Amino acid sequence: MSAELTQTASDTPQATSNVPLTTAGLLIGMLLSVLDQTVVAIALPDIAADLGGMDAISWIITSYVLASTATGALYGRISDRFGRRAVFITAVAVFVAGSALCGVAQTMSQLVAARTLQGIGAGALFVLPTISLSELYPQRLRSRVQGLTGGVFAVASVGGPLAGGLITDTVGWRWIFYINLPLGLLSMALIAYALRLPKSGGDGKVDVAGAVLLTGATVSLLLVAEWGGRTRPWTSGVILILIGVFAASLALFAWRQRRAANPLIPLRLFANPALRVVLPATALLGALLGGSIVYLPTYLQTAYGMGATQAGLALNPYVITFMMVSSLAGARIGAGGRFKPYLLVGSAIVALGFALLSQLDAGTAYALLALELGVLGAGFGLLMQNLVVVAQNAASPADLAATTSATVSIRGLGLSLGVSAFGNLLTRELQGHAPSPQATAAAIPDVLLWGVPAAIVLVALMTALPRTVNHPVPGKITA
């Protein structure tokens, strides 16, 4: 494999990069960014017992998600101007500094502030690797390589609670953050040594005004999804103001993008028929991913009486199938160049997976649940990174970073909204029931049923995907 990767580099303009070491450094950074969304959840009771501030404990996760989601789209344009290597190293350094501050935090407010700093760095750590890998490898290997990033996402998302539980139980919750330091420094060292990519955006100024407006729209939307219907009524003044801020910020952002010399997300992207399908499909996929990743472990704990560590291990059928299918499909698509059949089949399998999981009850054997988890993992494995590759293939070289940033950021936004939406549905299902593991276990399948119509919409979007996607160099590839 190493020899093949080295040869790949020599076939491209980026021949001075050490491709295997660069790939390792980028994937480590990506692992850290996703892991820190999930690894903390299992340690929240210990953190609250140590620092107090139980009323603010949800902000340990929310602050990180808000910061990373709001800044993700900005990093593509910044790296166009200042270079992928410099921006990635800076972002990892911010993430590492935030991690160190999390580890030494003495109050809940200090921890939330440090998590926000962490999230600002993390915004780059999935976006920039996705961009850089597409530049390091020729297009025939793009699907195969991006399949690796899908595997990293699956392992980090589902393995986070397992790792968090093990670390918290053995050495304490602070080491959840300290462990990031050596890994982050290793990622920085590998990228500093191995990555050599030319700047692709000239000296154009970064659209700071657009970034501020986009951040305002993103944060207000996420807060509406997080608070609406749970901590605050939908008709409350706070929620209505946030909805107004979102609408105004989004309108001003669109106005700004038409006039900016170097727009953050060029509106010409939406003129491409493939991107008009891929971007909403990516948001919907993120929502389905978020709902399943967060609430399936809860179901395993409440329905089968599993502990956090055991529940994490019980999700292996989901993770392993996700990784295998993502890798195999990426290699096969890379050889044949045909995306649309795989994406159609993947979305149909996701609908089937949610339909099967919605039929769970107290008598369902774990062996059957494991099979159904594998079905859902296979569907997501066919979809997740291949949608990113379709978006990249539809973009011109000048718009590659902006397109990739938009796609990955929209997926992250969808994931966050999905977690909130499924949480609201679960709250509604539990109304009128006394709080108990049995009530939660009975409600979660009803919540997962909502994934079926959402996945059917995904099938419809994949049906609308053009059969051909414009190639960034002369010629076409089949969708």
Topology of helices and strands:
Elements: H1 2-10, H2 19-38, H3 44-51, H4 59-82, H5 84-104, H6 108-122, H7 124-136, H8 139-170, H9 175-178, H10 180-194, H11 208-227, H12 237-259, H13 273-304, H14 308-314, H15 316-336, H16 340-357, H17 366-394, H18 400-430, H19 437-448, H20 451-463, E1 468-470, E2 476-478
Antiparallel strand pairs: 1-2
Helix pairs in contact: 2-7, 2-8, 2-10, 4-5, 4-6, 4-7, 4-11, 4-18, 5-6, 5-7, 5-10, 7-18, 8-14, 8-15, 8-17, 11-12, 11-18, 13-14, 13-17, 13-18, 13-19, 13-20, 15-17, 16-17, 16-20, 17-18, 18-19
Structure report:
The chain is built from 20 helices and two strands. The protein has 479 residues and is mostly helical. It has a two-stranded antiparallel sheet with strand order 1-2. The longest helix has 32 residues.
Which labels suit this protein?
479 residues, mainly alpha, Growth Hormone, Chain: A, 3 domains, two-stranded antiparallel ribbon, 77% helix, disordered N terminus, disordered C terminus
Query: What spatial order of strands do you see in the largest sheet?
Result: 1-2
**CATH superfamily descriptor of the largest domain:** MFS general substrate transporter like domains
Regions with little confidence, pLDDT below 50 for 5+ residues:
1-14, 471-479
Q: Supply the number of structural domains.
A: 3
Annotated CATH architecture of the largest domain: Up-down Bundle
Described by strand count, sense and barrel closure, the largest sheet is:
2 strands, antiparallel
Instruction: Write down the secondary-structure element order.
Output: HHHHHHHHHHHHHHHHHHHHEE
CATH topology of the largest domain: Growth Hormone, Chain: A
Question: Level of helix content?
Answer: over 70%
**Envelope shape:** globular
CATH class assignment of the largest domain: Mainly Alpha
Distance between the termini: 27 Å
